[in-house]
């Protein structure tokens, strides 16, 4: 679950709380390897802004959590440093890519996990591990010190056992930071309670969902309607179907340029033979140290932005992103949040994952990808249990309205009891 | 013959384009940070001053300024490029479709954009055992790229074009002469159908030499009935030839995507607040048109100094321009180094009056020249001799006084005491200097010594 852990918790109790950071957030005192062999031994010369802000607020960083290499994965099985296991069932996946972060949030009481989402990497593991995961609006939290996957999609968020813990610490990491210009255009964070009247449920999100997961989601909606007096409306958001391919084109295009810098020079691992021509040297270091999924995404991304394909893939994906944003805007004009199941199934067994093709794994993200593509804030909360495994509900709200999400999650926690492994049920 | 240029000019900003590192490092790899080294998690922040300078250059080159502009990633692997992609501009250069009038014609400007410079590679060691060292001080220095249409017709014209353009750009962005080495040019040249690109030419001389070599190489090939292949070549400064660059295995594809960490800039609205100062050659053109001054003369004046040109403008409004030009090109120009130092309204009036006196016929030409010479030396109406002779006269006087110091004591009571020295100098120099000149030098030196109490 941890890729690196503190040796000893300092005995003086000047720290107000403890937290962990996903291994793609730079930290001076721990290696930052982003789950990749190519960054083995890398100690950054600076802290990521969210990390330094939590430290300044009295937080003790206890370790770095394991993840899919550079965030490339849905099951946390693509790490160069072992596979974290689901606290509810060690034969099953934690989800990805912030798998270690979700497992830590689930197992450690009063623990705050910094996670990162590009296309669902907070929601997915939160759902599989039965914790709350908040993914803020794109640009709400500084990305300074975040090892990039897809810069136009990456968001730093928080996973924890309850929405109130997130509410306490989210204002600390949010807010503009001159070191990340994309964080400097945000309005002030407002976490005051607001009235929640109406939830929209897109019809497109109910297809291809495992029946027991769908039933658990529908039961949760019933509770919301009956006990919280929130109206539930079925809507249609056609662009949800196109968000997935658009996301994979954009994310891999950006990733393939971000990963170009890892070549055995300046930082990270070094190659054996520095007398080689630089092309051969770079290739040998990259071939040896990148994992299979990283190589696949570099190839996909490079292909999407090549002359001749750029218009068909990269530029088209940019326009799909705009359509998705306006589709959501239309629905969120009349409704407070959009609700869907988070993942189409419960955490799969490792033996099942081994049999999945890459395209099947990518498809599992079809509900978490759309709000990520649109840069909209979203939260995943546990909403039921199937075969003793948690299921998740994902709620999406308007840009910059993280307050709405924390508010509705808080209301939900008043009518639904979360379970954690080892606790009396 | 068709020649088009891609000019790369480093902008003289205080800090780099995307980080706060200084642009002037003190020794290799001293001005570097996580951002210009491309460390994971670092991010670019745009230097506004660099953007303003690029807008200014674009407007100077009569470009249409893009409404909105953004940056792109150009991906290629090279050891001097820390991120293995360069942040540059692709679809939305700052300026497009401009033109620069030169030699009575207009060289069209295709685009002007802003990008970051990579680091610098140095090869060291014996041949066969060379190693490459990389200095990343240059990584992230702002670079403006100006691309011309193939409107230049000869290597010498390319050189003249670059020389003129540099004069203007240097003035616009405040570049010093020694920064000339920071201008790099890629030149495209075709004699027949197919064009060849010569990469990375440093300096004006090399530009002309490289193009001349390439032109004659292409001509010879055509005469021999051979085909010219489209390729990239390097110019070897020492051997003065172009050689084929290492050929690439496949067509270059940089896979441009948007730079997601930087926003979209509303450049055309920024452009409204950017002032474009009048550049030396534009000023020359204007003065030539306004006062009918001959092009070569006015060019010489503006290139001497901008304050001298200011003075010419002043004179032109009060006297016939051709007279003003004669005086400015003549005695004013040769003494300007000294005159400029103490130039104020009073001195300006005195110089102008002197010229006006010549025009009215009150004094002769040579008298006026002497007066101007004297102004330059900060004195009264002295004669104009060349400085070497003057200093030797002063030295003689000084030696002579050293030998007969009692003259200084006598001088207090009787000014004629100076005559002893004057007589000696006249005998010694045998008419090399005019009597008035000697009298003046001697009196001046005696007075100086008395004032400073330099008796012996």
Description:
- The complex is a heterodimer of chains A (425) and B (456).
- By secondary structure, chain A is an alpha/beta fold.
- Chain A has a single domain, classed as Amidase signature (AS) enzymes, CATH 3.90.1300.10.
- Chain A has 13 helices and 13 strands.
- In chain A, the strands form two sheets. An eleven-stranded mixed beta sheet of chain A has the order 1-3-2-6-8-7-12-13-11-9-10, with helices on both faces. In chain A, strands 4-5 form a two-stranded antiparallel sheet.
- In chain A, helix 5 (211-228) links the parallel strand 9 (198-202) and strand 10.
- In chain A, helix 2 (99-107) runs parallel beside helix 3 (123-129).
- Chain A is globular.
- Chain B is an alpha+beta fold and 456 residues long.
- Chain B has three domains: 2-271, no CATH class; 280-376, no CATH class; 387-452, Arc Repressor Mutant, subunit A (Orthogonal Bundle).
- In chain B, 43% of the residues lie in helices and 18% in strands.
- Chain B has 14 helices and 14 strands.
- Chain B has helices at 48-60, 155-173, 204-223, 267-271, 280-291, 295-304, 306-316, 321-341, 345-360, 365-376, 387-403, 406-413, 418-429, 435-452, and strands at residues 2-10, 64-65, 72-75, 85-88, 95-102, 105-116, 120-124, 131-135, 142-148, 183-190, 196-202, 231-236, 241-244, 257-258.
- Chain B has a nine-stranded mixed beta sheet with strand order 2-5-6-9-1-10-11-12-13. In chain B, strands 4-3-14 form a three-stranded antiparallel beta sheet, with no helix packed on it.
- In chain B, a hairpin with a 5-residue loop joins strand 10 (183-190) and strand 11.
- Mean pLDDT of chain B is 85; it is low at 380-388.
Query: Segments of chain A where pLDDT lies below 50 for 5+ residues?
Result: none
The H-and-E topology of chain A, N to C, reads as EEHEEEHEHEEHEHEHHHHEHHHEEH
Please estimate the helix content of chain B. Answer: 40-55%
Number of discrete helical segments of chain B: 14
Helical content of chain A stands at 25-40%
Oligomer: heterodimer
Task: Give unreliable regions of chain B as ranges.
Answer: 380-388
Major sheet characteristics of chain B: 9 strands, mixed
The mean pLDDT of chain B is 85
CATH class membership of chain A: Alpha Beta
